[in-house]
Amino acid sequence: MKAKSSNPTMKDVAREAGVALGTVSKVMNNIPVGEDYRIRVEEAAKKLGYQVNSYAKGLKTNHTGIVALIIPTLKHPFFGVLTDNVCQVLMKRGFRTLLATTESDMEMENNCIRMARQHKVEGIIALTYNPDIEIDEEIPFVSIDRFYTNRVPCVASDNYGGGQLAAQKLYELGARKLLHLRIGSPVIGEPDKREAGFESWCQLNGVPYRVVHKNDADGLMSFRPILEEMIRDGKPEYDGIFCNTDQLAAVILKMLRQLGLSVPEDVQVIGYDGLLDFTDYKPYCSSIVQPVERMAETAVDILLNEDRSKLPALTCLPVSYRPGGTTRD
Amino acid sequence: MKAKSSNPTMKDVAREAGVALGTVSKVMNNIPVGEDYRIRVEEAAKKLGYQVNSYAKGLKTNHTGIVALIIPTLKHPFFGVLTDNVCQVLMKRGFRTLLATTESDMEMENNCIRMARQHKVEGIIALTYNPDIEIDEEIPFVSIDRFYTNRVPCVASDNYGGGQLAAQKLYELGARKLLHLRIGSPVIGEPDKREAGFESWCQLNGVPYRVVHKNDADGLMSFRPILEEMIRDGKPEYDGIFCNTDQLAAVILKMLRQLGLSVPEDVQVIGYDGLLDFTDYKPYCSSIVQPVERMAETAVDILLNEDRSKLPALTCLPVSYRPGGTTRD
DNA sequence: TTGTAAGCGTTATCAC
DNA sequence: GTGATAACGCTTACAA
Fold first, then answer.
1. B2 CB closer than 7 A to any strand C atom
2. Cβ proximity of A47 and A40 under 8 Å
3. Are A175 and A285 contained in the same domain?
4. Residues 6+ apart with CB under 8 A from B175
5. How do B123-126 and B66-71 pair as beta strands?
6. Residues of chain A scoring pLDDT < 70
7. Which candidate in A95, A252, B99, B158 could, as Cys together with A90 as Cys, close a disulfide (CB 3.0–4.6 Å)?
8. Tell me, in Å, how far CA of B23 is from C1' of D16?
9. Containing structural domain, residue B26
10. What is the CATH number of the domain that holds B308?
11. Contact residues on chain B for A250, CB-CB shorter than 8 A
């Protein structure tokens, strides 16, 4: 008489209900079974507080109901919101989220992927900075914001279109000479297309522009001299600035004001991301808004898609423009 | 000859290395084994790309290496930072994080706990709003910011001390009539002690004060009339305000400025949390800073503690004061 | 030291 | 429709 106070098993339920093991399994999996049996089993299960052991189940079925999410950090609000959305969407589909934050460390990224494999996750959604990531063909993988190969589906906002839209909006709102400020990691990813889109629009429409390109290592402050030297007689040489993130835009805005320029009168500024200040839920600046919820949904959709033969290599989700007080609209 | 292209098992490794199954297991678990055997096994494992199946392992050992983290949302930066820290700390200890966001929905909270149990997690760290949460005595549980019973360890910042510190700082910096503004959920949690600490300090030191208490449902804007009516002849009746969160402080600051008051000259403001604006990594306001990293570490420490007989019922971690431009220091 | 075999809690395949 | 029984991949006595 071993008092199984701890964890009741199917065997216990079967004994309690006076039925066979297999019958209990069937009840738990909603496989048709005699009505009276079903009731007996359900009551026994409730009485014992039975919970299926998903490890035993997973071992048998190779179906764990877990998806790994690998992301640089949750300290940045964009990643926070994205993670929140992915977690919710997965939950709705009956999946759990195994979270790993990597701090963009390449070794960590590979470690996490290895762990995910060990834990027999049913898929991996990752936002990484590692060009040599160890992607396993066996396990479904969806990348966010980073295109690897045609075999690895990538989900991103329409960065190219967003860059175009930013240029177009600035022009429509009266800016005549445009500046694009870009900071980021040296690793090439989808977000770099913001720059390309911006340039293409300016060229196509004959609008004069300039692009300044910095690396994360240079720091946000490295743009200061650029801004200083572009001011002649108290007026800026460029009257429309597109920053590749809202964060950069916020920093640039502060600098512009310090330099005595008024926004949006002297110069208009558009950022990218569409983040909201959590203290008042208002935009930091006018911005190209990434459709975060849709990105999360799409990533999960693709990941969980039954038919893995023809996966979209790159899915670009439409962005939108939202005024935020730093443009004249 | 079944081509096991997919997932090599220990058996495969054993065959490849020409040793017995048990030997492979020993090598994988760093149990002493003949040097030549070890090498043979390791090479075979590498060649086959073998990864232990932690489901099979977990089934056997009841050791899954997974801890569940249940949190309301990742849209709020405090939770984002907390989650990030918990995930990092767990990783360092060799544990993975199973993440669940609940949106503070009580049913969801219970669902998540049930899932965690099914997945045989080795512990649960939760920040919940459900007073009737289904806590299972069998599985280690640590609560953050919410005290249930002596049997459920709770980790929080020293909210009471923080409230005192806020009052004290305001007084030291010259404020003579203090106001505490508090908004939150109707559910009672540790953070409510901020108010108690504030009051006790004022009473003990004979400093006149008032407390205004709102519920989330009232909305942040509900404080507006309070502020309006406290202004006499352009000067505020209260010259020191302690808000129970940085978010509230940010809103209040905006209102004060709209009402023509200058901060910190006319009135000084202190918040609680110690969040940094991600755009410039600067504080939103002067604030009582929660030791988020330590909270994460402590929660994990307690959760993973071997000796579960004498657990601390409530662990309050020391807070600190950080000036942020809304006080005269 | 190394190999063997008995489970861990499920599911799935069979006879009944 | 129900109930034994053999896996699933691994750990761990225990035997060799």
1. no
2. no
3. yes
4. B238, B239, B240, B267, B268
5. parallel
6. 1-6
7. A95
8. 15
9. 10-52
10. 3.40.50.2300
11. 279-280
